[in-house]
Design goal:
mainly beta; SH3 type barrels; about 5% helix; 1 helix; five-stranded antiparallel sheet; two-stranded antiparallel ribbon
């Protein structure tokens, strides 16, 4: 890991700190539940709108149309053009909460 210091003693590294946001992602074929990693002080929307082609999803469970888990993985790189919609789980509302 490279660390650079400026004249005031502030340091810079090539490590990017991110926050894991529990999310549901609907792709063109499947539903995915996992964690999308977002830079500190940014929104999930910002991560989806950056210039990267892929978004990282960790602890991913991929579901078929019947709601059965067909694949689990500690990491997947999801191509953004396959995403139909994304919802952070902490904002998910059930019928009883509405």
């Amino acid at each position: 890991m490279a660390i650079e210091y400026d004249e005031k003693g502030k340091y810079y590294t090539n490590v990017i700190h991110k926050v894991a946001v529990p999310s549901i992602v609907q792709t063109t074929n499947n539903l995915i539940r996992g964690f999308i990693h977002v830079r500190n002080d940014e929104r999930l929307k910002d991560e989806l709108e950056n210039n990267e082609t892929f978004v990282a999803v960790t602890d991913a469970n991929i579901y078929n149309a019947e709601g059965q888990v067909i694949y689990s993985s500690p990491f997947i790189a999801l191509q953004k053009n396959q995403i139909v919609w994304v919802m952070p789980l902490d904002e998910e509302k059930t019928d009883t909460e509405q």
